[in-house]
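User: Good morning. I'm curious how flavin-adenine dinucleotide would be positioned relative to this chain. Could you predict the structure with it bound?
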Amino acid sequence: MSRKKVLVLGSNFAGLTAAIAVKHELHGDVDVSVLSASRRFLFNPSLIWLPFGKRRASEITFPVEPTFERYGIDFTESAATQIDPVAKKVTAANGDVRDYDYLVVATGYRNRMDVVPGLTPENKAYTITTLEDAGLAGRGWREFLDDPGPIVVGATQSAGCFGAAYEYLFNIAYQVKKAGLRDRVKISFVTSEPFLGHFGIGGLPAGEQLLTMFLKKSGIEAYHNRSVESIEHERLTLTDGTRLDFKYAMIVPPFLGQEVNKTAPGLANDAGYVEVRDTYQSKTYDDVYGIGIAAHVNAPWVTPTPVGVPKTGFPTEQMAHTAARNISSQVLGLDPTELSPFAEMPAFCVMDAGNNGVMILGNKMLGPDKGLMIPGPQSHALKLAFERYFLWKARRGYVQLP
Ligand SMILES: Cc1cc2nc3c(=O)[nH]c(=O)nc-3n(C[C@H](O)[C@H](O)[C@H](O)COP(=O)(O)OP(=O)(O)OC[C@H]3O[C@@H](n4cnc5c(N)ncnc54)[C@H](O)[C@@H]3O)c2cc1C
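Assistant: Good morning! Here's the predicted structure, ligand included:
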């Protein structure tokens, strides 16, 4: 009997983990191939440091092909353009047509920049959510240092990556102080969260008080539960009419899934996210999985201003392992029984603040009722150590390690 074929789309946190994990689960007795739009792994959490010159692109990326090669996984750099779940084929931008027995969609996110008209570097309004964007934000930062003025940092309506917005806010406050500009630069924070420290997960016990104190101590003015109406050159306008002038702005937009996920009927929703069960199988196709940011997650609440759900690194790896175990069961002719509801996974994150930080621990991803936020310089040190550890682990493909 010929070996089963697993095709993975995407090669970052979710795709790299799933591809190697499925090989392990089946003790190598499976053909795994990866098709990805990028040949580089990117440690996105470090993008917050790139604009300040604290990291170069080469320090937070690595080529994935040698990693896959080590595990006998075939890698091709080309974006998938068409998924045909009936014929079980995927077409790639380079013209390749790949067939599969099991497909893992780990295609991540793209920015929804049109959420606010005028969110462009031409208006001095940047984002840091991709490597290219973070590079532009760095150019803008260097220009800002020559002509400083007010700063706005924020996360728009429907954004979900609040951690990055807070980290950038505290890092920029640290940089402003370091540059001796603290008395000359007013910093404002704009967020769609219903309260500070909601994070798109429902908040953590005492989180709001801690963040309010942090912001006050840093002299930052906060606007929560707000939508951004528009951005013009050096001016941001909220839907309540508030106008914030700036010389530098960094705004986190909402994310969308990739267009390719919408090419298969019933696979993805309008936002391009794969509708999944707790096994991470597609709701429509038993042999297609959606993991990481590509998987749709429903928030169990409605907020006055819409907010998204952060699909961070830890739950992404959990989803990848769950999918790998379920595919392995299917290959062996068993039912895919491993369930891992996103909402119930523990929340773990370290939020950096330049030379300080906060460790965030919650008993579950959505609506944690037990949790801790531990501030202090040790959290900054932990973030640095975690970056080194994670890049080492991912580059070697040691996906079984925590
Ligand atoms: C600025 C920032 C800071 C963050 N900070 C933290 C943090 O501190 N802690 C934390 O836990 N998480 C953090 N996250 C979240 C973390 O980065 C995500 O959990 C992680 O990136 C999810 O991985 P993924 O593989 O699902 O998606 P992605 O990282 O988006 O990877 C998607 C992959 O799919 C590929 N791809 C895209 N389109 C196609 C296509 N059509 N065909 C084939 N391949 C395709 C891409 O090239 C890429 O390889 C942060 C995210 C950002 C943006």
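The radius of gyration is 21 Å. The mean pLDDT is 97.
Let me know if you'd like a different ligand tried.
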